[in-house]
Amino acid sequence: MTLDSKSPSGPIEKQWDSHRFNMKLVNPSNRRKYTVIMVGTGLAGASAAASLGELGYNVLAFSYHESPRRAHSIAAQGGINAPKNYSNDGDSIWRLFYDTVKGGDYRAREANVYRLAQVSGNIIDQCVAQGVPFARDYAGYLDNRSFGGAQVSRTFYARGQTGQQLLLGAYSAVSRQINAGTVKFLPRREMLDLVVVDGQARGIICRDLVTGKIETYAGNAVVLATGGYGNTFYLSTMAKASNATAIWRAHKKGALFGNPCFTQIHPTCIPQSGSYQSKLTLMSESLRNDGRIWVPKKKGETRKPQDIPEEDRDYYLERLYPSFGNLVPRDVASRRAKEMCDKGFGVGSTGLAVYLDFADSIERLGKHVIEERYGNLFDMYHEITAEDPYKSPMRIYPAVHYTMGGLWVDYNLMSTIPGLFVAGEANFSDHGANRLGASALMQGLADGYFILPYTLGDYLASTKFAPVKTDDAAFKETQSGTEDMIKRLMSINGKKTVEEFHRELGKVMWELVGMGRNKTGLQKALQEIPKIREEFWKDVKIVGASNDLNAELERAGRVADFLELGELLALDALHREESCGGHFREEYQTEEGEALRNDKKFAYVAAWEYAGAGKKPILNKEPLEFEYVKPSQRSYK
Ligand SMILES: Cc1cc2nc3c(=O)[nH]c(=O)nc-3n(C[C@H](O)[C@H](O)[C@H](O)COP(=O)(O)OP(=O)(O)OC[C@H]3O[C@@H](n4cnc5c(N)ncnc54)[C@H](O)[C@@H]3O)c2cc1C
Question: Of 99, 152, 163, 352, which has the fewest Cβ atoms less than 10 A away?
């Protein structure tokens, strides 16, 4: 398949403006004649639904949650980037563009990244207008802090709960449209399949999670804003319910999957404390503004951290990366933490942790300042570990946090299925092989507030639509496929719980496809995953009934999809014989242990095509060209 990114031509700073001008418009009085199906109402979906509703389209918005406010986006802690240069420290659209392309290890599409940097300033204005309570300085101006991979302060924040505040803003905007009648919100519905009619995405199949009823919905276009697939690894910082079902089933209907192996491992999470743990907790990257990361210089150190004098501590990030120090990007900080622990310098009972220490900042700024900046994060840490981070350093360790991969989209955010758009974390995104902190909220809201309203309108205005009804053959066929899968799952009646299978998959994924990957391990994973999948389909036990509220059945469908996606993720990691960003192949590293790219062979987006059950997926490539930010060995020294 030839992949056309539809990146506009001309100088990069003019591309989005000229593209917008060239796009077709839908007359305001015609917009209500078009129905847009929005799956997902997290930051990306809620902002898109609100904006399309405001324009006058007829929007059907679906979520498996009971309210948009429950989306995983609510968990976002540290902040959202925009190059407003309020700090007067040299920031600009160009610098954010440059930092993002470099941070992503030169595996992102330049045109998209530039547009993202360009529209990000508008997001802040939009959210302030909605009443989002961003932190302000003493004079009342919006405050900024720094995140990894940048030497400027461009991160806007609302304490350690930025996602929650932004989501309340988007929720208010969407609620206004629900009240105005342009958006209809259908809660507790899980999309289980995509309906494609004559090659166009024209509808979805949903399960009403309260009654178990299978429902069908038709429209002119479908948007998937269904979040990331980090839970393929079982343990992650993502919400337990976050899953890949919508994008995976659309993939099986023909949408190509971009860079599935690009997974972000976040360096500062509360370490796992036991094998029965089902969730990991993030400690925001913003903490690295004031916290210093270190390990004892002596292996097997038994003294309490407070009793270890300065000369016996190794502030390894400050030592290795004097320019960026503790604020190196996530991939770098994660790898170095693992390296320290692998070498035996790790702390805590498992040895799988490093210290994040605030003692210096508390002494310099006072406890009240640290409390103001990060109070809720410190409370969370205290409650989970029973240790007081104001008195002794936090123990942190890397964990799966975000997925840069997702459904492949062109510049218009349209997948390879005409009429199927993908927004937010669900698309393969603008972050290349490594997302910089505070850039996911930026991307999700850019997609929803400022990109889809134009590109989707252009698609509607320039496409001919045959009338479709939900009792057409394509809908019936897709619906019966969904019902058959549910029947099959319910009829297995085996001995093992869904959770057990998910845990087994997660173990393989983390150990063999995790922070460090190598050929032998990946080949082993590719043997193990199909075995777990086969056993799942023979021996899973799902209690309850399908025509009722059934959380176990919901989980079973999601884990069935993770068991397929996990294999594609490992295959993608195996084929990419280079290291870049969050994809670290141990065979490909510099003498100093940094990721070693192979631009000659791998400067492309790997877009995988589903070839049918049991068949090897087909690899398609979108070559990446770098006209403005020339690829070089990333250095944060
Ligand atoms: C702990 C944590 C902290 C973070 N902090 C930051 C931060 O400070 N800054 C930053 O930029 N990023 C941060 N991130 C990343 C960021 O929060 C996410 O990438 C972003 O919020 C994803 O938004 P989204 O709208 O794409 O998806 P989500 O918020 O995950 O929303 C998905 C929506 O889709 C719905 N859905 C999914 N599947 C289906 C289906 N099959 N049928 C129906 N509905 C479905 C869900 O109900 C939900 O409404 C953080 C992530 C984590 C895990």
Answer: 352
